[in-house]
Amino acid sequence: MEKLLIKGGKSLSGKISCSGAKNAALPMIAATILCDDKVVLKNLPYLQDITTMFELLGSMGSEILLDENMDFTISSANLKDIEARYELVKTMRASILVLGPLLSKYGKARIALPGGCAIGSRPVNFHLDALKQMGASITLRNGYIEANASQLNGANIKFEGVTVTGTENLMMAATLAKGQTILTNVAKEPEIADLADMLNSMGAKISGAGTDKIVIDGVDKLKGTIFDIPADRIEAGTYLVAAAVTKGSITIDGINPNRLMKVIDKLRAAGAEIDYNEDSISINMKLEFPNPVDITTAPFPEFPTDMQAQFSVINAISSGTANIYETVFENRFMHILELNRMGCDISVKGNHAVIQGVKSIYGAQVMATDLRASASLILAGLCAEGETVVDRIYHIDRGYERIEEKLNYLGANIIRLPS
Ligand code: EPU
């Protein structure tokens, strides 16, 4: 397995661009199932999760072409198969995103039931309950979700809990349903509004995405589109933290700061100077030790769970004590044990971490357990004394495009060690 070797202690400076957002791209690739025309997606990030999603569509019969501009043309007309096999679903839970489109367009779907994962049990009951309210019959058999619906009907659905991919699945399913669907208690993440923009450009009738209530008027057919994937707010946030923990000064281009306001607020509270315009953010960290910042994760527009592990590192080298409450996933503190092996002083009880800042941390051999946990270990390596080796970095390649290249461009010293 490949590893990253990080020589710590370099202050980051310079300018980089954000890649396309993984969590916007994945539902958009699934949405191509909804029409028979070609769909062109631009600015797709080069990531393992994107490859897995293409593998899934390819296994069902989609044709995927990459041109010289690195744009992908996807043609999902007349799929020969409507199944997401366990071998793919087990490597990427977001495979569940094909359920809504398959059911809406083909009236049936067979999707391996995703199991738990490193960050929590992550059930999909909210997706299934909502699809049932639209008239789908759903059976769980041999580890698979078997869903059928000769016609999905519009419905008034209040989600039992806020779910990002659940909201996306239902929004996609409702585009071709008969009549109007009203979704409430929905997720408001920017990626929801991005998906609605793409679906509307295909002829869907969706309003309210990004607010508490989404209204979808079903249409008979969707058409092809050309769509640009927006920038990845979590990637941008991660690089801002990289600057904050290395007393750095960097600019990230191509990112809308409105998508990161809670993160920007917390970075300012940690002592960083931040400037932004409509599509770029600059950070300058002058403090020797960041101020401790308390964090409580919650659905957008609150502080994102996907930035929690990265802020653990800011707090680990801060001048005081901070509290982090993880309210979205029940097991998202796996990085803490590894951070403590690097000299951090963090204790965890349930969903609450108490982080006592220390004057310095040191390099160690550490193991990545999930995507954002891996990011936090790399950030810790950047500000640690000596060398850090991060093992199992396939987790990082699922969600960060060329992370060591981008960080090295900013002055870091990271080498990818072959298997
Ligand atoms: N939940 C249920 N039942 C459901 C669905 C969700 O109980 O049917 C619970 C989950 O177990 C969790 C909470 O609701 O405790 C929120 O989960 P959600 O469904 O919103 O998460 P998701 O859609 O599976 C997406 C992102 C995650 C991100 C979360 C929260 C994608 C592909 N994934 O996951 O991204 O952490 O929303 O913002 O969009 C990542 O990029 O590293 C990542 C994990």
TrEMBL record:
Q: Where would I find the Enolpyruvate transferase domain in this sequence?
A: 7-407
The record's EC number reads 2.5.1.7
Catalytic activity as recorded in UniProt: phosphoenolpyruvate + UDP-N-acetyl-alpha-D-glucosamine = UDP-N-acetyl-3-O-(1-carboxyvinyl)-alpha-D-glucosamine + phosphate
A GO molecular-function annotation: UDP-N-acetylglucosamine 1-carboxyvinyltransferase activity
Any idea which UniProt keywords this protein has?
Answer: Cell cycle, Cell division, Cell shape, Cell wall biogenesis/degradation, Cytoplasm, Peptidoglycan synthesis, Pyruvate, Transferase
Q: Which residues carry this modification: 2-(S-cysteinyl)pyruvic acid O-phosphothioketal?
A: 117
Kindly list the positions annotated as binding UDP-N-acetyl-alpha-D-glucosamine: 93, 306, 328
* Pathway where this protein functions: Cell wall biogenesis; peptidoglycan biosynthesis
Does the keyword Cell cycle feature in the UniProt annotation?
yes
* Binding sites annotated in the UniProt record for phosphoenolpyruvate: 22-23
Q: Which residues form the active site?
A: 117 (proton donor)
Highest taxon of source: Bacteria
Give TM regions.
none
GO CC annotation, single: cytoplasm
Q: Name one GO biological process term.
A: UDP-N-acetylgalactosamine biosynthetic process
Q: What does this protein do?
A: Cell wall formation. Adds enolpyruvyl to UDP-N-acetylglucosamine.
Against PANTHER family, the record matches this protein to:
UDP-N-ACETYLGLUCOSAMINE 1-CARBOXYVINYLTRANSFERASE
Q: Identify its protein family.
A: Belongs to the EPSP synthase family. MurA subfamily.
Protein name from the UniProt record: UDP-N-acetylglucosamine 1-carboxyvinyltransferase
Record organism? SAR86 cluster bacterium SAR86A
Q: What is the lineage of its organism?
A: Bacteria, Pseudomonadati, Pseudomonadota, Gammaproteobacteria, SAR86 cluster
